[in-house]
Amino acid sequence: MNNRLKVLRAERNWSQAELAMRLDVSRQAVNAIETGKHDPSLPLAFRIARLFALSIEEIFDDSAN
Amino acid sequence: MTAQTDDGIEHTPARSRLASVFGLVGSSLGAIFLAGASVGFFSAHDPSRPLSTVGLLVGAGLVGGTVLCLWLAARTVLGLSRSARSEIVAPSVRKGRTLTVLSGLLGAAIAVIMLIGQPQGFGAPAFSIFSDAPMQGWAAIALIALTCTALPWITWAWHRAIDEHEFDAYREGALYGLYAYSLISFCWWLGARAALLPSVDGVAVFFATYTVWGAVWLWKRYR
């Protein structure tokens, strides 16, 4: 699944580790989501959306599927 | 501390930390095995006769190897703890790491009890802990008690601490481990029935299963 997580993170000048801490996940989890190797669960997707004050659809895009 | 490369992936010290963990496991096992071999070597020697030059060299090599392994293990522990203190990590990740260290200590305790629980004690050949050789009753009871109490508690707490990405990696490793177990045990059993292979070795199947599980888990986690 494509997502804008890396762009949103870069806009805030956060490292993967900083984002991981805010989401209470590991840095590897953030990396896996950014590179499309892991699709987050619905609860984690909501946490990400809340953190960036956006809707899930504004961050994640499943059009490739 | 992170460094970003052209692939857009931040390369933190995670991979070097993984290498350090493998180094720590290796040096700890080396220290345990070499300490056992040293005790075995010197207790087998007749004290009324002086050691030959070759004997002295072998003994010094074993003791020196033990000290070297202990030094490497201590240095790795210090380096890992320094790196962990300076890194930004989520509280759940820190908890998971603490529990991983605890499970490592539990594994070391199990290895030591297995080694000294053999009839020959600490002087037994180190690799015999993986065999079906007889074991003293107190050691078996202590190991069963540890395995049935500390291990489930650490596992339960660890599963509550890890994030979904790690859990997925663990679950996929477990699935491949299950398939590896089914394949190895069934084929070995058939081969043994046809006298093509020795009898099924439960310990070997156990380690093969865990090797597959661990390899897939680490690959999914750090790829």
Question: What report would you give on this structure?
Answer:
The complex is a heterodimer of chains A (65) and B (223). Chain A has 65 residues and is mainly α. Chain A has a single domain (2-59), classed as Orthogonal Bundle (434 Repressor (Amino-terminal Domain)), CATH 1.10.260. Chain A has helices at 5-11, 16-23, 27-34, 42-52, 56-59, and strands at residues 2-3, 60-61. Chain A has a two-stranded antiparallel sheet with strand order 1-2. The longest helix of chain A is centred in the last third of the chain and has 11 residues, at 42-52. The mean pLDDT of chain A is 93. By secondary structure, chain B is mainly α. Chain B has three domains: 7-88; 91-158, no CATH class; 163-223. Chain B contains six helices and two strands; from the N terminus they run ββαααααα. In chain B, helix 1 runs antiparallel to helix 2 and helix 3 packs antiparallel against helix 4. The longest helix of chain B is centred in the N-terminal third of the chain and has 34 residues, at 53-86. Residues 1-9 of chain B have low confidence and may be disordered. At the A-B interface, helix 2 and helix 3 of A face helix 3 and helix 5 of B.
